[in-house]
Amino acid sequence: MRSPGTVLITGASSGIGEALALHYAARGAALALTGRDRPRLDAVAQACRARGAEVLAEAADATDAPAMERFIAEAERFRPLELVIANAGISAGSGFAGESPEQARRIFAVNLDGVLNSVLPALPHLRARRRGQIALMSSLASFRGFPGAPAYCASKAAVRVWGEGLRPLLAAEGIGVSVICPGFVTSRMTEANAFPMPFLMDSGRAARIIAEGLAANRARIAFPLPMRLSAWMLAALPPGLTDPAMGRLPKKRAMGS
Ligand SMILES: NC(=O)c1ccc[n+]([C@@H]2O[C@H](COP(=O)([O-])OP(=O)(O)OC[C@H]3O[C@@H](n4cnc5c(N)ncnc54)[C@H](OP(=O)(O)O)[C@@H]3O)[C@@H](O)[C@H]2O)c1
To answer: So what's the pLDDT on residue 93?
Structure first.
């Protein structure tokens, strides 16, 4: 499996982003890492350096477009980017009262604007070189709106469909686009879930599956299989049939973002 030489990862300060950083660090990639929490980001950068990687790490909020533009320009000066993984995301628990307007807006801002702010400034560089790869972090939750997380599901659906549209467009320019759709993966995000999470996967294993899918330039990297089949079935059935079951699903505990 060919590993990319330089990888930019947003949301690298914990969870899946951290696991991806450690994975690529161990395979000799140079890393441009970002997240908001400086101490956690620095700890990940140190762990990657300990595995032999050269690392540029800058704290930035993905919703801050000028800050993300500056970071991507700096990353390009550090090393020309080969793989950009737009991974940063949030899910605010809605409790039983439904998502507050603030939560819904913040979820769209981070999960959607944050992805645009990570990909759009990198694209001209990849286009100029006519090579490179973009990975967009969606979710299996993107295939059906769940009552516990409507804005989260909708933001992930938008990211997935955007990536699906970009892929053939950019393939003509030699650039790969993959959409990542995980089921439940251990992370700070899923730590907040007080309900059973079927087929919960360790973040290191998820990172290996994602990296394999990216190395094969797969359009959609969706896992694990049983959750993928459930998502496919939920999307295929008429909403009228699945709504009663949806209403009985457990909701994420209310929390801030
Ligand atoms: N875990 C799952 O089961 C699962 C399933 C499907 C998809 N996903 C997706 O995977 C991605 C990573 O989530 P995770 O599960 O690894 O959760 P996590 O441990 O909470 O990691 C989220 C990452 O996103 C960063 N982030 C959040 N808001 C940000 C902002 N405004 N600006 C910059 N960075 C921000 C966080 O950085 P700071 O902490 O430094 O702010 C952190 O590094 C998300 O897009 C999530 O939706 C997760």
So the answer is: 62
Strand partners, 221: 180
Q: Determine the atom of ligand 1 nearest the C-alpha atom of 41.
A: 40
Q: Encode pLDDT of 3-41 as tens digits.
A: 889 999 999 999 999 999 999 999 999 999 999 999 999
- Nearest C-alpha to atom 16 of ligand 1 is from which residue? 15
For ligand 1, residues with CB inside 6 Å are 11-17, 35-37, 40, 61-63, 87-91, 110, 114, 137, 139, 182, 184-185, 187-190
Q: Among this protein's residues, is 24 annotated catalytic?
A: no
Burial (CB count <10 Å: 0-12, 13-18, 19+), residue 111: buried
Distance, in Å, from the CA atom of 36 to the CA atom of 23, rounded to the nearest integer, reads 21
What percent of the chain has a predicted confidence (pLDDT) above 70?
Answer: 94
